């Protein structure tokens, strides 16, 4: 009986060892999956971006080479705040892909950022909008809880790398729709300041906004 019990214990222990070995091997293989990069830099045809102006509330500025956030009013008596919207399509990335990281790159536009206290915010957009039609009066609804704040530029031509990892993952698993982001100054009441970037209409291809997504396959 002791010999039989020893044999059974040995077999059970051997199976446990095999199971642990296979589990460890699976984990190592999963961790060693190659990280791939998907990159998209739209042009004047494929780009979906525009700035909107309080001073020109019915005008669409989707054809501009600029994406900026401005406060140009004089003592806030003549409102001329400006914001911008941007959306990148990434349907070619398989649904339910787990993204390691994703970033929007925004490149400073001449004559550069100006003014003081020009930190800014981004919001996830919560409804469909069309570049050629969007304006101040019909700007789309936002997900208020999605607000992120960015430090004011420390340099006149400072570029920005915006982390959108959570957003891209939520879109890929079907939690939200991809309607892009709206960017605006954190304080639009204090006048004469702004942050300026190239749009997808920029003549300088290397300075157009770009989305990069890093994922494992």
Automatic annotation (TrEMBL):
PROSITE patterns: PROKAR_LIPOPROTEIN (PS51257). Residues 47-213 form the Carbohydrate-binding module family domain. Keywords: Secreted, Signal. The keyword Phosphoprotein does not apply. One of its GO terms (cellular component) is extracellular region. InterPro entries: CBM96. Its main location: secreted. It comes from the Bacteria. Pfam families: CBM96 (PF24517). It is found in: Secreted. NCBIfam families: DNRLRE_dom (NF033679). This is Carbohydrate-binding module family 96 domain-containing protein.
